[in-house]
Each structure stands twice: as structure tokens, then as C-alpha cells.
Amino acid sequence: MTETQVCVAPSPYQVEHAQFETIWFTAADGVPLNFRRLRRASGTEDRGPLLLSAGTSVRADIFSPPTADTLPRYLSRAGYDVWVLNWRASIDLAPTTCTVEDAAVLDFPSAVDTIVEYTGADSIKAVVHCLGSCAFMLAISNGMLPKVSTVVSNASALHPEVAPLMWLKMPPAIGLLAKVLPDLNPQWGVHAPGFWPKLARTLMRIGHHECDNEVCKMSSFFYGVGFPALWRHENLNDDTHDWLSGEMAQVSTKLLTHVSKSIRTGHLIATGKYDELPTDYIRRAPATDARFAFMTGDHNSTFVPVSMARTFDHFDKYSPGRHVFQKMHGYGHLDVFIGDRAAEDVFPFILDELNRD
Ligand SMILES: [Zn+2]
Q1: Which residues contact 44 (CB under 8 A, 6 or more apart)?
Q2: C-alpha 344 to ligand 1 mean position (Å)
Q3: Deepest of 77, 79, 143, 231, by most Cβ within 10 A of its Cβ?
Q4: What does the sequence similarity comment in the record state about its family (predicted)?
């Protein structure tokens, strides 16, 4: 009897994952972090290293959805050596309690130093998203990332702002849950271990009927006021919508508490915990020579577009005409990276801004 072997060609998704290498390093306080590195495609002009950072509740792989093209692959083909960061809030690392401040001081300077050390580059560029962008922007605005020359920042930077309805939901929810839970988890839509997770899931199920993906709906319950909140369904292909079930997980309530206080203050708070972060930094000129492109989806219902407009205004005030602000028409929060047509609608803008010296 002979066995029949069925050979199935690997998908672009599988091929891309096989090309990443993992590089470990330590944050300034010794916490182990890592990069997922995708080197520039062979035969391309060397455009140097690029740091790519996601937000919270996700990991580096969030930039590699099952779409025809992805941002790491797109930038690699354009000649960039892509370093996708798992900072301390990544779901690929052990759950931790931290704030944006901690990541700004302890993670991002070490991350940039690691890339410079490995590559020997004089400077690097960066694409940063959501709370990863907040932490990065806090660091670079306070002179901690002098080797970064160009930045594309998405969704939120120094001035996180949410929709009016979120003002009703967020402070009491985070205030209560932070007292009893170390983290929140969109996976509670599938498995809710204990009273508080079950209560959150019950409340989610009362209000969310937009799809059959419990993790998608739980993410929307936590991270905005939309149906869904983090992306627009019409921008995702079916495979990506399914894939997200395994890509959303825990986020520290301490981190969300810091962001919630920052939203009420009108900008990211520096609490005085670190000497590197003066509490009045927001009233000073940004301590960086980098050029910035601020972008966001015009339907972003996690951090509303005025978030980025305010940070752009802050930078433009000190260096008029040098930086740009771009809204992505028809896009929400995360679908600018994982949308089925993001490679046509969004990635060219990112690349153009990175290539502009
Ligand atoms: Zn959904």
C-alpha cells in the first residue's frame, strides 16, 4: 500500500513568518524583550534599519495578517531592514504591570540602541502605533532617542483623546477593574475565568451583535465605542477577521489607568517617577531633530483623529512646515495596517514619508 502525499504550497503568510528571525535583548531594568526582524529583500537598495512597534493587547505579529501583502514585507521590498518590537506590553511576553512611562524610559531607548549596535547604522527610522507610539513619542520628545531621524506615528502620540461616549464608559470601568484585576483580556469573549471576566463578557454580549467573533466584539467593548471599534469590518478580509481571534490578549490595567489619567489631563502624563521625564515636558520644544509624519484613520473610534492633530500642532508650533499630518480616508484604528487594501491605500504614504530626507 502506498501513501499519497499532498503538497500544498506555503501561503505568503507562512513564507513571511519563516523569514523572520527573533533577536532578544534586555530593557534598562533587565526585562527580556525581543525583535522580530525581517531583513531587506535581496537586490534592493539599502535604506537602513527601521523600528516597527505595535500597541498593547497585541504582539509584533499583528503587522503580519493573512493579507496579500503586509507592511513588514512591503518595507523589506523597499529596502528597509525591519525590526518589529515586542515591548513589555506585548502578549508574546510574560504578562506585566507597566505604564507608558515605563516603556518610554526602559524599553525604547534600549530597543534603538540594540538596532544600532547590531546594524552599525548611524541612525534609524521608525513606524509606531497606538500606545507603542505614545511610549515612543514620550521618549523621543524628551531626548532619549537621538539616533532616530524619521518617524511615522499612527493613531495616538502625546495627546490621546477618545470619543465622548468613551468618557462615560472608561473612567468608571477602569477605576473599578484596576482595583480587582491586573489585566483585561479580549480572550474573555471566548473564555471568561471568574466573576469579573464573566461580568465583562455579559455586558459585551448585551451591546455587541455586529459579528460572530467573540474576541473581535470583546476588543470593541474594551477599546472604543464602535461596532467594531479597532477596525472597520468592511476593511478586513474574512481570514484576517478570523485570525484576529488569536492576536488579541491581555493588557495591564495599570497601563490603561495611566492612559485614562492622561486623557483627562489632555496629554501623556509624566509623573516624576523618572528623572529622564520632566513633568512639564509638554510645555517645552520636543528634544529631537527627527522629522515626523502623524497619521490616523478618519474613522478611528479608539483614539479620535484630533489626538494626532494635537500632537502635530505641538510639533508644528516649534518647527512650522517641517512635519505632516494625514488622515486615512475610510479607515479606523488598526485596519490601516491589517486592512485588505492597506498595501494600496496606506503603505505608499508610509513609505513616501520614510524615504523623504
Ligand atoms: Zn468582528
Answers
A1: 76, 77, 78, 79
A2: 23
A3: 231
A4: Belongs to the GMC oxidoreductase family.
- Residue 176 corresponds to which cell in the numbers above? 473599578
Distance 234 CA to ligand 1 centre (A): 10
Q: Cβ(110)–Cβ(119) under 8 Å? A: no
For residue 216, the CA-to-ligand 1 centroid distance in Å is 5
For 80-128, write each residue's pLDDT tens digit: 999 999 999 999 999 989 999 999 999 999 999 999 999 999 999 999 9
> Residue 180 C-alpha to ligand 1 middle, in angstroms?
28
Q: What length is written for the chain?
A: 357
| Segment 7-29 mean pLDDT | 83
pLDDT at 169 over 90: no
Neighbours of 293 (CB within 10 A): 21
Structural domains for the chain: 12-161+268-355 (3.40.50.1820), 164-252 (no CATH)
Query: pLDDT grade, residue 177 (50/70/90)?
Result: confident
**What is the band of 1 on the pLDDT scale with cuts at 50, 70, 90?**
very low
Q: How far is the CA of 44 from the centre of ligand 1 (A)?
A: 38
Cis amide leading into 160 (omega within 30): no
Asked if residues 141 and 63 have their Cβ atoms less than 8 Å apart, the reply is: no
Ligand 1 centroid to Cα of residue 245, in Å, is 9
Residue 28 Cα to ligand 1 midpoint, Å, equals 38
Task: Give distance in angstroms: CA of 205 to centre of ligand 1.
Answer: 13
